[in-house]
Target: GTP cyclohydrolase 1 type 2 homolog
Amino acid sequence: MKIMEAIQVLEQAAPLSYQEGYDNAGLLTGNSNWNCTGILCTLDATEQVIMEAKERRCNLVVAHHPIIFGGLKKITGRNYVEKSVISAIKHDIVIYAIHTNLDNVLHGVNNRIADRLGLVSRRILAPKDRQLMKLCSFVPLAQADELRTALFEAGAGHIGRYSDCSFNVEGTGTFKGGAGTNPFAGNPGELHREKEVKLEVIFPAHLQSRLVAALLKSHPYEEVAYDIIPLANEHPEVGSGLIGELPEPVTEEGFLHILKNAFELSIVRHTPLLGKKIQKVALCGGAGSFLTGRALAAGADVYVTADVKYHEFFDANDRLVIADIGHWESEQYTSELLVELLQAKFPTFAVLKSAINTNPVRYF
Model:
Protein backbone atom coordinates (compact mmCIF):
# COMPACT_ATOMS: atom_id res chain seq x y z
CA MET A 1 0.00 0.00 0.00
CA LYS A 2 0.98 3.66 -0.24
CA ILE A 3 2.10 5.58 2.82
CA MET A 4 -0.74 8.01 2.12
CA GLU A 5 -3.26 5.27 2.92
CA ALA A 6 -1.91 4.99 6.47
CA ILE A 7 -1.88 8.77 6.83
CA GLN A 8 -5.51 8.94 5.75
CA VAL A 9 -6.46 6.52 8.53
CA LEU A 10 -4.61 8.63 11.09
CA GLU A 11 -6.13 11.89 9.89
CA GLN A 12 -9.61 10.41 9.91
CA ALA A 13 -9.10 9.56 13.59
CA ALA A 14 -7.44 12.88 14.43
CA PRO A 15 -7.80 15.55 11.71
CA LEU A 16 -4.86 17.94 11.36
CA SER A 17 -7.24 20.88 11.80
CA TYR A 18 -7.62 19.84 15.46
CA GLN A 19 -3.98 20.54 16.30
CA GLU A 20 -3.02 23.62 18.31
CA GLY A 21 -1.66 26.65 16.47
CA TYR A 22 1.86 26.18 17.86
CA ASP A 23 2.04 22.53 16.80
CA ASN A 24 3.69 20.88 13.77
CA ALA A 25 1.74 17.65 13.28
CA GLY A 26 1.65 15.99 9.88
CA LEU A 27 4.18 14.79 7.30
CA LEU A 28 7.70 15.86 8.37
CA THR A 29 10.03 13.94 6.07
CA GLY A 30 9.71 11.80 2.94
CA ASN A 31 6.99 11.30 0.36
CA SER A 32 3.49 10.04 1.11
CA ASN A 33 3.28 8.52 -2.38
CA TRP A 34 6.02 5.98 -1.61
CA ASN A 35 5.05 2.34 -1.21
CA CYS A 36 4.90 1.44 2.47
CA THR A 37 7.13 -1.42 3.64
CA GLY A 38 6.07 -1.28 7.30
CA ILE A 39 4.99 1.10 10.06
CA LEU A 40 6.78 1.75 13.36
CA CYS A 41 4.85 3.61 16.08
CA THR A 42 6.67 5.59 18.76
CA LEU A 43 6.37 8.51 21.13
CA ASP A 44 9.51 10.25 19.81
CA ALA A 45 11.19 9.89 16.40
CA THR A 46 14.76 9.99 17.69
CA GLU A 47 17.73 8.87 15.61
CA GLN A 48 17.75 5.58 17.51
CA VAL A 49 14.11 4.99 16.55
CA ILE A 50 14.85 5.83 12.91
CA MET A 51 17.60 3.21 12.88
CA GLU A 52 15.23 0.73 14.53
CA ALA A 53 12.75 1.39 11.71
CA LYS A 54 15.47 0.72 9.13
CA GLU A 55 16.46 -2.55 10.83
CA ARG A 56 12.83 -3.69 11.06
CA ARG A 57 12.19 -2.70 7.42
CA CYS A 58 9.66 0.01 8.21
CA ASN A 59 9.82 3.14 6.04
CA LEU A 60 7.06 4.96 7.95
CA VAL A 61 7.61 6.15 11.51
CA VAL A 62 4.44 7.44 13.19
CA ALA A 63 5.41 9.54 16.21
CA HIS A 64 3.31 11.39 18.74
CA HIS A 65 5.79 14.23 19.20
CA PRO A 66 6.97 16.15 16.11
CA ILE A 67 10.74 15.87 15.91
CA ILE A 68 10.67 19.15 13.96
CA PHE A 69 8.85 21.68 16.09
CA GLY A 70 10.33 25.03 15.12
CA GLY A 71 12.05 25.99 11.89
CA LEU A 72 15.33 24.35 10.88
CA LYS A 73 17.80 26.85 9.40
CA LYS A 74 20.65 24.35 9.21
CA ILE A 75 20.82 20.56 9.15
CA THR A 76 24.35 19.70 10.22
CA GLY A 77 23.75 17.01 12.83
CA ARG A 78 24.63 19.27 15.76
CA ASN A 79 21.65 18.14 17.89
CA TYR A 80 19.24 15.25 18.25
CA VAL A 81 16.64 16.84 15.97
CA GLU A 82 19.03 17.34 13.07
CA LYS A 83 20.56 13.88 13.53
CA SER A 84 17.12 12.28 13.33
CA VAL A 85 16.14 14.25 10.23
CA ILE A 86 19.42 13.43 8.48
CA SER A 87 19.00 9.73 9.29
CA ALA A 88 15.40 9.68 8.04
CA ILE A 89 16.28 11.39 4.76
CA LYS A 90 19.36 9.23 4.25
CA HIS A 91 17.38 6.01 4.61
CA ASP A 92 14.19 7.17 2.80
CA ILE A 93 12.09 6.96 5.95
CA VAL A 94 8.92 8.99 6.33
CA ILE A 95 8.28 10.66 9.69
CA TYR A 96 4.66 11.51 10.41
CA ALA A 97 3.64 13.26 13.64
CA ILE A 98 0.19 13.07 15.21
CA HIS A 99 0.43 15.31 18.26
CA THR A 100 -2.10 17.75 19.72
CA ASN A 101 -4.68 16.65 17.17
CA LEU A 102 -4.55 13.20 18.82
CA ASP A 103 -4.62 14.87 22.25
CA ASN A 104 -7.72 16.83 21.26
CA VAL A 105 -10.08 13.99 20.33
CA LEU A 106 -12.20 12.12 22.86
CA HIS A 107 -10.83 8.73 21.77
CA GLY A 108 -7.21 9.91 21.78
CA VAL A 109 -4.28 10.12 24.20
CA ASN A 110 -6.30 11.17 27.24
CA ASN A 111 -8.80 8.40 26.69
CA ARG A 112 -5.96 5.88 26.90
CA ILE A 113 -4.92 7.39 30.25
CA ALA A 114 -8.53 7.11 31.42
CA ASP A 115 -8.50 3.45 30.37
CA ARG A 116 -5.58 2.79 32.70
CA LEU A 117 -7.48 4.41 35.57
CA GLY A 118 -10.80 2.73 34.79
CA LEU A 119 -12.74 5.98 34.51
CA VAL A 120 -16.39 6.02 33.52
CA SER A 121 -18.66 8.84 32.27
CA ARG A 122 -15.84 10.43 30.31
CA ARG A 123 -16.06 13.78 28.54
CA ILE A 124 -13.75 16.46 27.19
CA LEU A 125 -12.56 18.81 29.94
CA ALA A 126 -12.18 21.92 27.75
CA PRO A 127 -14.20 21.50 24.52
CA LYS A 128 -13.13 23.62 21.55
CA ASP A 129 -15.53 26.01 19.88
CA ARG A 130 -15.76 26.93 16.18
CA GLN A 131 -15.10 23.36 15.09
CA LEU A 132 -18.63 22.87 13.75
CA MET A 133 -20.49 24.27 10.74
CA LYS A 134 -24.04 24.18 9.44
CA LEU A 135 -25.03 23.44 5.86
CA CYS A 136 -28.39 24.65 4.60
CA SER A 137 -29.78 23.77 1.18
CA PHE A 138 -33.10 23.65 -0.67
CA VAL A 139 -34.25 20.50 -2.43
CA PRO A 140 -37.51 19.27 -4.04
CA LEU A 141 -39.71 17.26 -1.68
CA ALA A 142 -39.32 14.03 -3.64
CA GLN A 143 -35.49 14.17 -3.53
CA ALA A 144 -35.10 15.31 0.09
CA ASP A 145 -34.60 11.83 1.57
CA GLU A 146 -31.92 10.91 -0.96
CA LEU A 147 -29.97 14.12 -0.37
CA ARG A 148 -30.31 13.87 3.39
CA THR A 149 -28.93 10.32 3.33
CA ALA A 150 -25.98 11.40 1.17
CA LEU A 151 -25.08 14.16 3.63
CA PHE A 152 -25.31 11.79 6.58
CA GLU A 153 -23.01 9.33 4.80
CA ALA A 154 -20.53 12.14 4.17
CA GLY A 155 -20.28 12.82 7.92
CA ALA A 156 -23.03 15.31 8.73
CA GLY A 157 -25.81 15.04 11.28
CA HIS A 158 -23.94 14.01 14.44
CA ILE A 159 -24.83 15.80 17.68
CA GLY A 160 -23.26 14.16 20.72
CA ARG A 161 -24.37 10.52 20.77
CA TYR A 162 -27.11 11.13 18.22
CA SER A 163 -26.75 10.57 14.48
CA ASP A 164 -28.89 11.37 11.42
CA CYS A 165 -29.83 14.75 12.91
CA SER A 166 -31.35 17.33 10.58
CA PHE A 167 -33.96 20.08 10.49
CA ASN A 168 -36.46 20.33 7.64
CA VAL A 169 -38.92 23.06 6.71
CA GLU A 170 -41.25 22.85 3.71
CA GLY A 171 -41.78 25.92 1.53
CA THR A 172 -41.91 27.16 -2.04
CA GLY A 173 -38.86 27.97 -4.14
CA THR A 174 -38.94 30.03 -7.32
CA PHE A 175 -36.54 30.16 -10.27
CA LYS A 176 -36.42 31.09 -13.93
CA GLY A 177 -33.87 29.42 -16.17
CA GLY A 178 -31.96 31.58 -18.61
CA ALA A 179 -30.71 30.77 -22.10
CA GLY A 180 -28.86 27.46 -22.33
CA THR A 181 -30.20 26.10 -19.06
CA ASN A 182 -31.75 22.69 -18.53
CA PRO A 183 -33.88 23.11 -15.39
CA PHE A 184 -34.86 20.07 -13.32
CA ALA A 185 -38.46 21.34 -13.38
CA GLY A 186 -40.23 23.95 -15.50
CA ASN A 187 -39.07 25.47 -18.77
CA PRO A 188 -36.30 27.96 -19.56
CA GLY A 189 -37.54 31.54 -19.57
CA GLU A 190 -40.59 30.75 -17.42
CA LEU A 191 -40.91 31.47 -13.71
CA HIS A 192 -41.32 28.14 -11.90
CA ARG A 193 -42.55 27.45 -8.38
CA GLU A 194 -41.36 24.26 -6.72
CA LYS A 195 -42.36 22.70 -3.40
CA GLU A 196 -39.04 22.36 -1.61
CA VAL A 197 -37.54 21.37 1.73
CA LYS A 198 -35.04 23.61 3.47
CA LEU A 199 -32.60 21.05 4.84
CA GLU A 200 -30.14 21.91 7.63
CA VAL A 201 -27.38 19.66 9.00
CA ILE A 202 -24.40 20.21 11.31
CA PHE A 203 -20.97 18.82 10.41
CA PRO A 204 -17.32 19.04 11.61
CA ALA A 205 -15.57 21.92 9.86
CA HIS A 206 -12.78 19.73 8.47
CA LEU A 207 -15.35 17.80 6.40
CA GLN A 208 -16.56 20.84 4.45
CA SER A 209 -15.10 19.78 1.09
CA ARG A 210 -16.58 16.29 1.45
CA LEU A 211 -20.02 17.66 2.40
CA VAL A 212 -20.13 20.11 -0.49
CA ALA A 213 -19.08 17.37 -2.92
CA ALA A 214 -21.82 15.06 -1.63
CA LEU A 215 -24.35 17.89 -1.88
CA LEU A 216 -23.50 18.75 -5.48
CA LYS A 217 -23.41 15.10 -6.53
CA SER A 218 -26.76 14.18 -5.00
CA HIS A 219 -28.75 17.36 -5.62
CA PRO A 220 -30.98 17.30 -8.73
CA TYR A 221 -30.61 20.99 -9.63
CA GLU A 222 -28.13 22.39 -12.15
CA GLU A 223 -27.40 25.30 -9.82
CA VAL A 224 -27.48 24.32 -6.16
CA ALA A 225 -28.32 27.00 -3.62
CA TYR A 226 -26.68 26.38 -0.25
CA ASP A 227 -25.27 28.20 2.76
CA ILE A 228 -22.35 27.18 4.96
CA ILE A 229 -22.46 28.85 8.35
CA PRO A 230 -19.61 28.72 10.93
CA LEU A 231 -20.90 27.92 14.42
CA ALA A 232 -19.56 29.20 17.73
CA ASN A 233 -20.87 26.07 19.50
CA GLU A 234 -18.43 23.88 21.40
CA HIS A 235 -17.67 20.49 19.88
CA PRO A 236 -18.29 17.97 22.70
CA GLU A 237 -15.79 15.46 21.31
CA VAL A 238 -12.93 17.83 20.46
CA GLY A 239 -10.80 19.71 22.96
CA SER A 240 -8.18 19.56 25.69
CA GLY A 241 -8.06 17.21 28.63
CA LEU A 242 -10.64 14.74 29.86
CA ILE A 243 -12.75 14.28 32.98
CA GLY A 244 -14.43 11.15 34.28
CA GLU A 245 -15.15 9.25 37.46
CA LEU A 246 -13.86 6.24 39.30
CA PRO A 247 -16.55 3.57 39.75
CA GLU A 248 -16.13 3.95 43.51
CA PRO A 249 -14.48 6.71 45.58
CA VAL A 250 -11.04 6.00 47.06
CA THR A 251 -8.78 7.74 49.53
CA GLU A 252 -6.19 10.17 48.24
CA GLU A 253 -3.39 7.81 49.24
CA GLY A 254 -5.24 4.97 47.53
CA PHE A 255 -5.51 6.97 44.33
CA LEU A 256 -1.80 7.75 44.35
CA HIS A 257 -1.15 4.01 44.61
CA ILE A 258 -3.48 3.46 41.64
CA LEU A 259 -1.44 5.98 39.64
CA LYS A 260 1.86 4.34 40.54
CA ASN A 261 0.63 0.90 39.57
CA ALA A 262 -1.18 1.95 36.38
CA PHE A 263 1.76 3.94 35.00
CA GLU A 264 4.63 2.00 36.61
CA LEU A 265 5.85 5.09 38.45
CA SER A 266 8.66 5.36 40.94
CA ILE A 267 7.49 8.79 42.08
CA VAL A 268 4.44 11.08 41.90
CA ARG A 269 4.84 14.82 42.51
CA HIS A 270 1.67 16.16 44.11
CA THR A 271 0.14 18.99 46.13
CA PRO A 272 -0.70 18.46 49.83
CA LEU A 273 -3.44 15.92 50.42
CA LEU A 274 -6.75 17.35 51.60
CA GLY A 275 -8.21 14.43 53.52
CA LYS A 276 -11.04 13.94 51.02
CA LYS A 277 -12.21 11.04 48.90
CA ILE A 278 -11.25 10.92 45.23
CA GLN A 279 -13.87 10.06 42.62
CA LYS A 280 -14.02 12.77 39.93
CA VAL A 281 -10.73 12.73 38.01
CA ALA A 282 -9.53 15.33 35.51
CA LEU A 283 -6.48 14.56 33.40
CA CYS A 284 -4.33 15.74 30.53
CA GLY A 285 -1.41 13.87 29.01
CA GLY A 286 1.81 15.83 28.69
CA ALA A 287 2.18 19.43 29.85
CA GLY A 288 -1.29 20.26 31.14
CA SER A 289 -1.01 22.93 33.84
CA PHE A 290 -2.98 25.30 31.58
CA LEU A 291 -6.10 23.26 32.41
CA THR A 292 -5.91 23.44 36.22
CA GLY A 293 -8.60 26.14 36.28
CA ARG A 294 -10.85 23.97 34.12
CA ALA A 295 -10.35 21.01 36.46
CA LEU A 296 -11.31 23.20 39.43
CA ALA A 297 -14.37 24.57 37.64
CA ALA A 298 -15.48 21.05 36.76
CA GLY A 299 -15.36 20.01 40.43
CA ALA A 300 -12.54 17.50 40.02
CA ASP A 301 -11.10 15.92 43.16
CA VAL A 302 -7.73 15.38 41.50
CA TYR A 303 -6.00 16.61 38.35
CA VAL A 304 -3.49 14.22 36.77
CA THR A 305 -1.01 15.72 34.31
CA ALA A 306 2.70 16.43 33.82
CA ASP A 307 5.37 19.12 33.62
CA VAL A 308 3.84 21.20 36.44
CA LYS A 309 6.15 24.01 37.57
CA TYR A 310 6.70 24.97 41.20
CA HIS A 311 4.40 27.99 41.26
CA GLU A 312 1.74 26.16 39.25
CA PHE A 313 1.20 23.72 42.11
CA PHE A 314 -0.20 26.64 44.13
CA ASP A 315 -3.03 26.89 41.57
CA ALA A 316 -4.67 23.90 43.29
CA ASN A 317 -5.70 26.47 45.91
CA ASP A 318 -6.36 23.72 48.48
CA ARG A 319 -9.41 22.66 46.48
CA LEU A 320 -8.05 19.61 44.62
CA VAL A 321 -4.94 17.49 44.41
CA ILE A 322 -2.61 18.06 41.45
CA ALA A 323 -0.65 14.92 40.61
CA ASP A 324 2.30 15.24 38.20
CA ILE A 325 3.20 11.79 36.89
CA GLY A 326 5.77 12.86 34.27
CA HIS A 327 5.47 13.70 30.57
CA TRP A 328 6.68 10.43 29.07
CA GLU A 329 4.90 8.45 31.76
CA SER A 330 1.53 10.04 30.99
CA GLU A 331 1.84 9.40 27.25
CA GLN A 332 3.70 6.08 27.25
CA TYR A 333 0.66 4.12 26.03
CA THR A 334 0.13 6.36 22.99
CA SER A 335 2.27 4.06 20.84
CA GLU A 336 -0.14 1.22 21.60
CA LEU A 337 -3.06 3.45 20.61
CA LEU A 338 -1.41 4.22 17.26
CA VAL A 339 -0.74 0.54 16.60
CA GLU A 340 -4.37 -0.32 17.34
CA LEU A 341 -5.71 2.46 15.07
CA LEU A 342 -3.62 1.25 12.15
CA GLN A 343 -4.01 -2.49 12.74
CA ALA A 344 -7.79 -2.13 12.79
CA LYS A 345 -7.59 -0.90 9.20
CA PHE A 346 -4.61 -2.97 8.02
CA PRO A 347 -4.81 -6.23 10.02
CA THR A 348 -2.39 -8.14 7.76
CA PHE A 349 0.17 -5.36 7.39
CA ALA A 350 3.32 -4.86 9.48
CA VAL A 351 2.35 -2.28 12.13
CA LEU A 352 4.92 -2.43 14.92
CA LYS A 353 5.49 -0.73 18.26
CA SER A 354 8.95 0.65 18.89
CA ALA A 355 10.95 -1.28 21.46
CA ILE A 356 12.95 1.83 22.42
CA ASN A 357 12.19 3.82 25.55
CA THR A 358 12.69 7.42 24.45
CA ASN A 359 12.16 8.95 27.90
CA PRO A 360 15.05 11.42 28.47
CA VAL A 361 14.32 11.69 32.22
CA ARG A 362 15.86 9.43 34.85
CA TYR A 363 15.26 9.26 38.60
CA PHE A 364 18.02 8.44 41.13
User: Anything to note?
Assistant: The CA atoms of residues 142 and 153 lie 19 Å apart. The two ends are 46 Å apart (CA to CA).
